[in-house]
Design goal:
Length: 294
């Protein structure tokens, strides 16, 4: 399917962006967390700008994927960002020994469970746009959830902060994906509808906000703390948006049982990846130092 190809391209681009942005963010002093000076510092780093370039590639590919497939199919594919991120982190450091130490069993488990889970769930249906009433409810719920996460993040430090902010960024990116899908439908109607609708401007606000949260997550701790929350959280929240906003459907009945098993296998795979010694050292791989910036 065309949407699957573009979703895979998006995942690969996002993984590359995560490695490049983490390498830049790890060099920024911790006291700049939650300050605009964090972004100002990053803008002077070529590696971060290269990461932003990959973010743009990912955005275009994501729009193409969402234009040709349901959110509940496209977004969960991004779970493969986590293992791809680890592989790229090892390659960036030109360390073949580290590459051989990757938790390949966990990576295979996560990838196989993802493919099997999507094959069983068979996401389908979907309307092109969501009603304004549905959007109001979704935006209020999202804002409340984000507020709770941000408040919690301000009261923690290190890896826990990175994990919480990773989940906050995941929620923001899931919202951005839903807005992109609605914006593509607006564009298919007419250019006038596209530019006069609030959806495309919501994409800009949600996208920038999510990027800011992600940079703080990457600066607060290692990729192993933020990336699992980002990838799995994005997938699950996106499915919720797809079902509630665009009336997407997943197989129900007894099919829910193997879907739950597949989800459990995905989570187990991500946890095993996170527990691996190599994953714990990912910050060192991409920042050129053996320690994690707290």
């Amino acid at each position: 399917m065309v949407c699957v190809f573009f979703a895979l391209l998006t995942a690969a681009s996002n993984a590359c962006a995560a490695v490049l942005q983490r390498k830049a963010a790890a060099q920024v002093p911790a006291e700049r967390s939650f300050h605009l000076s964090l972004i100002a510092d990053l803008l002077r780093r070529r590696v971060w700008l290269a990461g932003i370039g990959m973010v743009i590639v990912a955005a275009v590919a994501q729009a193409a994927a969402l234009a040709t497939g349901p959110i509940a199919l496209v977004q969960p594919i991004f779970i493969i960002e986590l293992p791809v991120t680890l592989v790229l982190a090892a390659l960036v450091n030109h360390n073949r020994e580290k590459l051989r130490q990757l938790p390949w069993t966990a990576i295979a488990t996560t990838t196989a469970a993802l493919g099997l889970g999507l094959a069983i769930a068979q996401p389908s249906g979907a309307t092109a746009t969501a009603s304004n009433q549905s959007w109001v409810i979704a935006l209020i719920a999202t804002a409340c959830f984000e507020a709770v996460l941000i408040i919690l993040a301000t009261r923690t430090i290190g890896e826990p902060r990175a994990a919480v902010l990773g989940l906050a960024a995941a929620c923001g990116y899931a919202l951005t994906a839903a807005l992109i899908k609605n914006s593509v439908a607006d564009l298919n109607t007419s250019a006038q509808v596209f530019f006069t609708s609030w959806h495309i401007y919501g994409v800009a606000v949600a996208g920038v906000g999510s990027l800011f949260l992600l940079q703080n997550a990457l600066q607060a701790g290692s990729l192993v703390a933020s990336q699992p929350m980002l990838t799995v959280g994005d997938a699950l929240i996106s499915i919720a948006f797809g079902v509630t906003l665009f009336n997407e459907e997943l197989r129900g009945g007894w099919w829910l049982l193997p879907q739950i098993v597949a989800l459990a296998a995905i989570i187990l795979g991500c946890v095993q990846i996170a527990k691996s010694p190599l994953a714990a050292d990912t910050a060192g791989l991409v920042s050129g130092t053996a320690t994690t910036v707290q």
